[in-house]
Amino acid sequence: MVERELISEFMVNGILLEPAALDYLEDRENLCSTLLGEARNNRLPTFLSLSGVKSMEMKLISVPMQETELEPARAEFPKVEVTCPKSDLSFYVDGERDITGKSISEGGMKDFLTYFRARYNAMRRLFRRRRELTGSLPIAKAGRMDEVKIIGMVRDIRKGPRALSVTLEDESSEIGVTIFLDKKVKLVGDEVIGVVGKLRGKRLIAEDIVFPGLPIVQKNRSSKEVNFLMISDTHFGSSNFMWDSWHSFITKLSEIEPKIDCMLIAGDLVDGIGVYPGQIEDLDVKDVYDQYELAASELDKLPHEMKIFLQPGNHDYVRLAEPQPALPEEIGSLFSNNVVLIGNPSYINIEGVDVLSYHGAGLDDYLPALNIPYTKPLEGMKAMLIRRHLATLYGGKTPIAPESRDYLVIDKIPDIFVTGHVHGSGAAVYRGVVIVNASTFQSQTSYQKMMNFVPDPGNFLVLNLKDMSSGRVVV
Ligand SMILES: [Fe+2]
Hints:
Blueprint: H1 3-12, E1 16-17, H2 19-25, H3 29-40, E2 47-48, H4 50-61, H5 65-70, E3 82-83, E4 90-93, H6 109-126, H7 139-142, E5 147-159, E6 163-169, E7 174-180, E8 192-200, E9 203-210, E10 227-231, H8 243-255, E11 262-266, H9 288-299, E12 307-311, H10 329-332, E13 339-341, E14 346-350, E15 353-357, H11 363-369, H12 377-387, E16 416-419, E17 426-430, E18 433-437, H13 446-450, E19 459-464, E20 470-474
Parallel strand pairs: 1-2, 7-9, 10-11, 11-12, 12-13, 15-16, 16-18
Antiparallel strand pairs: 3-4, 4-14, 5-6, 5-8, 6-7, 8-9, 10-19, 14-15, 17-18, 19-20
Helix pairs in contact: 2-4, 4-6
Bound molecules: fe (ii) ion.
């Protein structure tokens, strides 16, 4: 719909559109017709801002059907220390930073505003250490200063031949910012950044762009030898599941010395159903409940002394929007009691070491925005740490649920940061944080072949939490 038609369609229904909302709606036919339907039923405010439009859009995508069918109300994940009777492993899940049992979002406009306010405030606190921004002011007051210092959320990014043109906003106002390309700055939509610069007319010419960054802090180590294995993306039920590798994995874990004390599965335990068009052709097990029964019986063949932390991913049977709660009790009850269900993302403290586990769907927005190839997920994870956020972009590939707290902010610096999702395998250290992209049990799918992506399955990292020395289980 062209701009003029849009304005008049909404005006006829008594709705005024903010210019930014108009831009956003121009190439979103479906959203326009839904909003117009809402307007005709008097369910829209008379002035619709960009945030309002995005909120309505969120309402349409963030509550998948299965959530209401499968998600029983659960008590808050308690932050209690649990001692495994067999292995003596001491651990806890950080209940404050795991959404499980705490989702209150209905995806409405109010939730959306609350969510972005929570994100901005949580991010703003992370800039406290940045001396470049000492004395920063709300955008509405920034025009009175010679040198302008602001902290704002990136609302839109347009790339011109010589500069990026960015709109930054905070609760007080918004401002156009010019960032010349020679600064070599890459931005991700809806992230919060600091800008130092000078005003030229009403535009701010950026001299320095500041990210929250990752301070180097004392890292935690366990006082005893603890071997922590990280796997991801098993995709039970897929016809590409690597059975030979799995059987070899079971054997190796029974025989390995020293033994593995705990293992993380960072999402996509099963292949799921209806995740992408035509997926049914790629499934050996075509019922999702049967997929979980299969997964549970196979995990039961692993040593029972080993704790297993099980996180959902975008193929699992929980809502798609992040943060994702742990698998529901109906599924969880299939597993033996050495399996601990956690949300996505989640912080687990294992013998004093903080592990941030995130399935990694946010990489689907980070990697293209920053021109990082899928073969280098660790670079994407580093960008997440620098920006202190796991999935900033709203309206991109990663659906986000507007909770009252932003669970995707990295406000606690982990000792280990793990993702899966891209089916690669790698590890590195960035400013003292061990970053790990955990490998998969799924061989190259037809989709990956079409995309020319070669996974690195069956190649798993083990970390000794006492000194972070590493080893590998290759199957
Ligand atoms: Fe996956």
